Each structure stands twice: as structure tokens, then as C-alpha cells.
Amino acid sequence: MKQINRKPSESIALRFLYHTVAGRTILKILVCPFVSKIAGAVLDSKASAALIPWFRKKNGISMEGVIVPKGGFPSFNAFFCRKRRMGCVEENKALSSPCDAYLTCIPIHKNQIFDIKHTRFSLQDLLQDKELAREFTDGIALIFRLTPSHYHRYAYAADGRVLSWRRVRGVLHSVRPVCTRKVPVYAQNAREYQVIETKELGKIVQMEIGAMMIGHISNEKPVDRKSVRGREKGKFEFGGSTIMLLLQKDCVSLRKEVMEAGRDGGELAVSYGESLTE
Questions:
Q1: Is the model's pLDDT at 19 over the cut of 70?
Q2: 28 with 172: CB under 8 angstroms?
Q3: Its pTM surpasses 0.85
Q4: Using CA atoms, how far apart are residues 251 and 270, in angstroms rounded to an integer?
């Protein structure tokens, strides 16, 4: 793990969309799910493979450990959702990072309105379930921010039994800070989550949140309703995106650096399979 103080770049295009009248008019169209579906179809096309070298160079993406199909990647999305030879998941630990990402740790207080990445929302808004939100009062929210350069497949964070799962429809905004200052991104974006009962950690929620130009969150169905720590859970298609873990009060003993992630504007760089608990 590495503590960082990283301020993501804010492009001219995103400033235009979120800070001007004309831009917000265009944004009303762009955030519609059907627009993301059209973009997804383009990025699934053979012609889109021409974008791969530029994208790799722009984001400094290493191909070490990546499984390249015979004949190369047939489309941009095939590259973006690339598989790699997975590293080892740390053994004898209860909770692992589900992905490569930048991590922030947020305490969950009763009736609290969260301001995460300049976005305000309640846990009830996020889950669309008042009773479930109450179960996580005084617990902890771990927010994993993925950038385009990150590996966009993710795993289960803990062993357990999947009690329920839900898909919440929504408009698709970018999760970058310039956008989240204007709209409640985490409450509006399409998202999916599972409620998982574990032996060591109590009940947890693992949620995937889409972003602009990600119209598809592809999750595998849990085998026999089981979550297995380190087993691939699903993938995002093109764009930046977010994973959240909700933990109940006094059920998890997190590592010191995890608890401090997000203080003073910093984030913690974490890797898939890395232990989050002591």
C-alpha cells in the first residue's frame, strides 16, 4: 500500500459540460443510458481496436501479466476488459481489496449526508433501502476509485453467503471531481450491489457504480450464493468507475493505513487481493 496525495486532472471538455449552460444542456443527453449503449457498440467494433495503442500510451498501461488473445484484441472494449494472470490473494485475512484502485475510508454516522469527492448524498439514497441503510449506521464505507489506467475486473472482497442483490437504474455521470461538484453522482449513477453475510465480518455490502460512457456493469452470478474472496465478481466496460464496501460497526479491524485513507485529501493506492485488515 502507498499513501498518495493525488489530484485528478480535470479536462477542458468536462469543465465545459459541468460549468456552462450549453454544456449542461448537452449533458442531459449524454447521461442517458442509451447514449452509453451506443458508445459501447462503437467500442465493441473492430475499428475501435485502432484506439488501443494511443490509449495505452496516454494512460501508461503496462502489459505485464496481461493475457493477449491470439491475433490481438479484436476491439477497444476487449482490451479495456482484458484479463491478466492474477496475483496471489493474501492468505488468512478476512477482507481484501476487490480491485486495483485509489482508496478512501469514510465513517458512516447516523443521518449523515456524505460529501465524497464533492458529492452530497445519504446512504439511504445510495442503497434505496431505508432498513438496510440503518444496519450500517456508525460503520465504515470504503470507496475504491478506478481510473482508465486501472485493471477493470474486480473480485469478491470477502468469503460469505450472498443474501440478496439489487440493480439500481440511474443516469450515468463521470465520477471525476469536476463533475461531482455539480451533481450527486454516487446517488444518480446506475449501480449494482450484493448484501453478503460473512462469519468474521458480519454483514457487508459490495457495490459497483457505473460512470459516464459505462452503460454496462457485468457481474457473474454467485455460484450457490457464495462469495469467495479473490474470485472474479465482474467487470466494468470503458471509463472510470467506483466500487464501495460498506462495513458494520465494530465488525472489522482495518489496517491503520486503510483507516487513514482519505485524510487531508489523500488516497491510498491499493492492489487486487491486498489485505485491508490487520
A1: no
A2: no
A3: no
A4: 21
C-alpha of 108 from chain center: 18
**Residue 244 bridge partners (DSSP):** 143, 207
Higher-confidence position of 162 and 168 = 162
Which residues lie closer than 8 Å to 42 by C-beta, 6 or more apart? 48
Distance CA 192, CA 210 (A): 9
The DSSP symbol for 234 reads E
Instruction: Check residue 15 and give its pLDDT.
Output: 67
Q: Span 154-162, mean pLDDT?
A: 96
Q: What Rg, from alpha-carbon coordinates, does the chain have?
A: 18
C-alpha cell at 130: 431505508
Q: Which residues are catalytic?
A: 100, 241
Phi, psi of 180 (to 5 degrees): -75, -15
DSSP class per residue in 68-82: PPTT--SSHHHHHT-
